[in-house]
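hiii so um. not sure if this is the right channel but i have a protein structure encoded as tokens and i wanna go backwards to a sequence. like what aa goes where. can anyone help
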């Protein structure tokens, strides 16, 4: 659906994008992660044509981005972009019309999103009179009102209360389930881990990690915590890919490479004495993120 091919972008001496390749498929809900200044906003701006890349190409469905493709794209800019004095409904209708919706469809769609996002009692208030979180709901409605097939959202969750986070999450999931390609940036890794099947991590203008979160986890080291009532002799014969990382009190902490057999390690430990505790943990997304970002710097 959305394809970024080798995007480069500099601002003076600063290299913001250093060859970004990224594809987001229809029906995908992709979390776009990266430290401050990594290039997320710049990449998203290039994707929607707000900024031009110095080199590289953006295509949608394999074709250069034309007016029709732009009309089918919904974008939530980092700096937000509503008209503060315009009333909520009026503004959404205006934005939908800019994307070539008919007056009747625009009115109906604006009302539907106002309802869906819990803004019914603010329908005819100027945007500037709304709280920050409610302005953000309007901003989401503005990205959605023209029924886009591609959604590019720059930190849609920042500043939202937990209820609004739930609403935003539900809407994004629902849009992806309806076949929309959704990519959004965020620093809230736990939230992204719950919401997204796929992620892309960018660091210093390059994509350093990309893929299905479950598959990425399966392909990385796991941690096995064991408590046994026995001596340490068995540790001398750990199978390949298993290392002792440390101990906390009675608990042994082992690191298992992706191919290592956790069951075999647990069986060996049981041979040494009764097992008092066992816990096998995959890395959290935040750990994969740190590893990818630090590795990218090296
Ligand atoms: N208009 C600009 N003029 C000069 N430098 C810029 C401009 N826009 C971005 N940059 C620089 O490009 C780099 C990437 O910035 P970008 O805003 O894309 O990062 P980001 O990943 O969105 O960060 P954050 O998480 O803080 O939003 C940074 O070094 C930034 O200072
Ligand atoms: Mg940004």
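sure thing!! here u go:
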């Amino acid at each position: 659906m959305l394809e970024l091919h080798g995007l480069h972008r500099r601002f003076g001496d600063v290299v913001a994008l250093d060859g970004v390749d990224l594809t987001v498929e229809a029906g995908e809900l992709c979390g776009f992660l990266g430290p401050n200044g990594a290039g997320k906003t710049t990449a998203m701006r290039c994707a929607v044509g707000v900024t031009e890349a110095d080199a590289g190409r953006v295509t949608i469905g394999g074709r250069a981005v034309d007016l029709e493709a732009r009309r089918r794209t919904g974008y939530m800019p980092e700096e937000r972009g509503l008209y503060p004095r315009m009333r909520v409904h009026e503004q959404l209708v205006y934005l939908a019309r800019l994307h070539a919706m008919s007056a009747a469809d625009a009115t109906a769609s604006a009302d539907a999103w106002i309802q869906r996002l819990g803004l019914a009692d603010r329908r005819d208030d100027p945007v500037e009179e709304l709280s920050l979180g409610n302005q953000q709901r309007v901003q989401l409605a503005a990205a959605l009102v023209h029924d886009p097939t591609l959604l590019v959202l720059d930190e849609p969750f920042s500043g939202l209360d937990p209820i609004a986070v739930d609403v935003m999450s539900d809407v994004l999931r629902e849009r992806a389930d309806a076949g929309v390609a959704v990519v959004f940036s965020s620093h809230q890794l736990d939230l992204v881990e719950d919401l997204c099947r796929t992620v892309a991590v960018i660091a210093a203008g390059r994509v350093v990690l990309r893929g299905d979160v479950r598959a990425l986890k399966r392909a990385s080291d796991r941690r096995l915590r064991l408590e046994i009532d026995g001596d340490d002799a068995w540790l001398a014969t750990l199978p390949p890919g298993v290392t002792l990382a440390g101990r906390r009190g009675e608990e042994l902490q082992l690191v298992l490479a992706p191919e290592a057999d956790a069951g075999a390690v647990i069986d060996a430990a049981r041979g040494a004495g009764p097992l008092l505790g066992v816990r096998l943990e995959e890395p959290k997304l935040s750990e994969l993120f740190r590893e990818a970002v630090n590795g990218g710097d090296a």
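oh and The chain has two domains: 2-216, 221-281.
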